[in-house]
Amino acid sequence: GNDFSKGDLFMRKVLLATTALVAMNVTAAQADISINGSIEQKYVSGDAGDTMSTDGNITITGSMTTDTGLTFTVVQNNSIQQVVSADADPSNGVEDAYVSVSSPDMGTIQLGAGDDIFDRMDGALGENNDIESNAIPGGASTDIGGAAQAINYMSPSIGGLQIGLYNSPNDDTSGFAATFSMAGANIYYGSKEDASNVGISASLAGFKINAGSRKVANTSEKASDIGVSYVLGNGIKIAALNSRGTSSLGTKVKYNNIGASYTLAPGASVAIENSDNDGAAATYMALHVAF
Question: Are 185 and 169 in contact (CB under 8 A)?
Fold first, then answer.
């Protein structure tokens, strides 16, 4: 008989095991891991003084697709915030953390803390068609979205119609949203407990026009807005927003802004915006770099 060394015997076992796996036609799920993020360096000059701050995030995403076509994705979004002032501390930590399960036929189920169906589907609101909405007061905002621990579901788009469902067991809230797109126009409606909002967007002669509204049932709280943007031939985007509302305390709120942004290179852009919050003026300037 042959006299095998321990190394030869080990290699022979590995080869036999490998051959057996190939014979069984064993397959593994395809897995991908990516890291991306951005940093925005901001400078705001206003009636209350000047501030310089850093705002950004680093997002780690891992995903795998099974042989049956289901894609499992895990996301951790780490925030980076630094306000330079005498009495402010950095605000850093995990901003979003969730897992999603999706397929082209099923849609997407998202479990955990991340942008909910309202934030993901409400692009037709006016405030989503400006540059930054710097210093916009809550009473003038038409947004009802958030990032609470929740169960979110978004259906596939069928004939331009997409449905979203929301439930947060921690604070016992639920809601739904819907969007419908046709011939360049988009209509959105969302409802979460007593709050609801609606938006519509369309393009006309090169202008993109968004209009939205929000109200809270059985209260005087409400808001409405309109945002208009236009992209010049040189790539500069010009946008303006007008918002009006009534706060939860019954106070009338007015907010306006106008600004511009320009992409210097893929992943790098600059922006400037002048805003007026009930007479309090501010100028926002930023350099945004993404990777």
Answer: no
